């Protein structure tokens, strides 16, 4: 069917509704602050002299942080291999059951290697603890963890990050790979969603 074959739109039909406007975002950690912290983290990681390092990025929220940190590791003299995992907490309605499901697993052999897990936020700790235990059970020599943000007081299991970017206030953060309804991942900074007084 050619474009001329399409029937004209009905002028009596209302136009499609515009999507609701996105909320404002306040900068919490700016580009320069994040870049400086990534360089410092890379130096800390290089100092432990990881052997046959495999970096495992926990998707989706960590992808920007992981990419920048991996480049910083290269500048610090570390040349890791890179893998990806996608993990999801089982939920009933909107409540997490605490069980974790693997949606994408690593393909590389981990036995005898140092593994660095990279995630965006450490809150309950369930998914990071699950991934750490899983890779340790597969024979990794060491499983270390690195997170961009930690929210103190939110932990449901006993786990602390070996390498930490920032301790973050208990706010809804977006940007630098993190999203709200798939929006804001592209922002080069970490920001806080500002809610209007009417919300």
TrEMBL record:
PANTHER family assigned to the protein according to its UniProt record, in alphabetical order: HYPOXANTHINE PHOSPHORIBOSYLTRANSFERASE, HYPOXANTHINE-GUANINE PHOSPHORIBOSYLTRANSFERASE
Pfam families, per the entry: Pribosyltran (PF00156)
Pathway entry: Purine metabolism; IMP biosynthesis via salvage pathway; IMP from hypoxanthine: step 1/1
Protein name: Hypoxanthine phosphoribosyltransferase
Nucleotide-binding recorded as keyword: yes
Keywords assigned by UniProt, alphabetized: Cytoplasm, Glycosyltransferase, Magnesium, Metal-binding, Nucleotide-binding, Purine salvage, Transferase
InterPro entries assigned to the protein according to its UniProt record, in alphabetical order: HGPRT, Hxn_phspho_trans, PRTase-like, PRTase_dom
GO cellular component: cytosol
Predominant localisation class: cytoplasm
Domain Phosphoribosyltransferase positions: 32-179
């Amino acid at each position: 069917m050619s474009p001329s074959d399409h029937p004209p739109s009905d002028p009596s039909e209302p136009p499609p509704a515009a999507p609701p406007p996105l909320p404002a975002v306040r900068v919490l950690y700016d580009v320069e602050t994040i870049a400086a912290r990534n360089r410092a983290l890379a130096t800390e990681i290089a100092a432990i002299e990881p052997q046959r390092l495999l970096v495992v990025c926990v998707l989706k929220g960590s992808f920007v942080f992981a990419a920048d940190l991996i480049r910083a590791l290269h500048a610090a003299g570390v040349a890791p291999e890179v893998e990806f995992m996608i993990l999801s907490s089982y939920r009933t309605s909107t409540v997490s059951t605490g069980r974790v499901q693997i949606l994408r697993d690593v393909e590389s052999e981990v036995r005898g290697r140092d593994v660095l897990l990279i995630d965006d936020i450490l809150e309950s700790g369930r998914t990071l603890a699950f991934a750490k235990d899983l890779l340790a059970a597969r024979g990794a020599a060491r499983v270390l963890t690195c997170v961009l943000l930690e929210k103190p007081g939110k932990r449901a299991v006993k786990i602390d990050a070996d390498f930490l970017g920032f301790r973050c206030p208990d706010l809804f953060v977006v940007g630098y790979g993190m999203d709200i309804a798939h929006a804001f991942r592209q922002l080069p900074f970490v920001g806080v969603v500002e809610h209007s007084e009417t919300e």
